[in-house]
Amino acid sequence: MKPNIPIKISTYTGVALVVANMVGTGAFTSLGFQLSELKSPSTIIFLWVLGGVIALCGAFSYAEVGSQIRKSGGEYIFLSELFHPLIGYLSGWISITVGFAAPIALSAIAVIEYFPYYHLSPKWAGILLIGFITLIHSLNLKVSAKVQNISTLLKVFLIVLLITIGLVLPAESNAISLNTSQYSELFTPAFIIALIYVSYSYSGWNAAVYIIEEFKNPKKSIPRALVIGTSIVTVLYTLLQYVFLKMASLDDLVGKLNVGHIVSENILGSGTGNLFSFAISLLLVSGISAMVWVGARVTSSMAKDYQIWRFFRNKEGTIPKAALWLQFMVTAIILVTGTFEQVLIYCGFLLTISSAFTVFGVFKLRLTKHQYDKSTFKSPFYPVPQIIFLVFSIGMVFFAIYQYPAETAIGSTNVLAGIGSWFLNKYVITKNK
């Protein structure tokens, strides 16, 4: 009788997971919001390159932390071990309440918006879609890996195809002139707001660290998955926005959510455009699948350490089914109650704070040399990537507080609720156990 060896995933699946998490709603929806204030194509392209550089700086930092602390759970585990259990708990709380549920909800809205053949309710059709994907990931890890690899491959193929066609064809006659440059826009509040949108679009570059223990060789696979995946998406995103700007007019795009559909119609005609829009809606499902997969691992990690989450514990090597369905319920609530832009700002504000703490953790690791495994991945050009990431992250957080006081106040209230649940667990539930 063969021993029951837990299934482990490869580096390739890790790269696919990162790419699938990153390529989602933002790449196909946020350009319309950016063009409401920014009119220069060169500014837009620089914006997306800068977003990729910031994400890559984060990926380098997470790769170093993840190769040292080889446990699933992402920021929850990292910050608990690097700083204090309360800081780690709050990061996990953010992941459970909005960190994954909000992006999943936003992606579901985009899937329905891009679906061209029937007018479906974004909220209720989105809930059904997420429920179906959650069911798939409740089966086993082998099914999850196969679904993710295939869907991500199709997603990348579709994006490369759209980019290739857009680069080959001549620009639309009414398109924004790509030679127009207004560098003064780089120093405006509108640029910072747009950078917040772009940073959200690049979110997901840290996906692999949530399932570290499910890799065959996490010491090598985590850095490769994070860095390679983030680099691929940076190139794809920048070229995709260039094609969008080349193949549509300003009036076509400003304030529009379904940018990809508009551009595909301009390139291929109405009938074919609908077909391509349908394909885009399918590729966004891959991103939902990736986030559903990894998000529940934070809850299950916290359940091992805190009695308040004990219902969501799972046996070693098994699928965290209860955590998956909790995530589904939170996502459904967000879908029913939130709006696209409000949820985006609210979610991005909290996730930026959590990521900034983790990147700062690289400095803490380097200072504890007696515990440092020198054979693991080292962030290149240290401490430059960490400083770049922290400067932009802190800047975006303060600007978000100034520009969106209502959304950031809701985010702060959420953090206070997390603190309350931590003390409830420590002084009430654990003592009465």
Describe the model:
The longest helix has 36 residues, at 270-305. Helix content is 73%, strand content 0%. The chain has 433 residues and is mostly helical. It has helices spanning 11-22, 25-34, 41-68, 75-82, 85-99, 101-114, 122-137, 141-168, 189-202, 218-246, 250-253, 259-268, 270-305, 321-337, 340-367, 384-403, 405-429. Mean pLDDT is 84; it is low at 1-5. The protein has one domain: Amino acid/polyamine transporter I. The two termini are 40 Å apart.
Count of distinct structural domains: 1
Main β-sheet: number of strands, strand sense, barrel status? none
Number of helices: 17
User: How does the overall form come out from the CA principal axes?
Assistant: globular
CATH architecture, by name, is: Up-down Bundle
Given as residue ranges, the uncertain stretches (5+ residues, pLDDT < 50) are 1-5
Category by helix and strand content:
mainly alpha
Strand-residue proportion: under 5%
CATH superfamily: Amino acid/polyamine transporter I
* CATH class label: Mainly Alpha
- CATH topology description: Amino acid/polyamine transporter I
| Approximate helicity band | over 70%
User: In angstroms, what is the radius of gyration?
Assistant: 21 Å
Terminal-residue CA separation: 40 Å
Average pLDDT = 84
Give the SSE order as H and E letters.
HHHHHHHHHHHHHHHHH
Query: What is the number of strand segments?
Result: 0
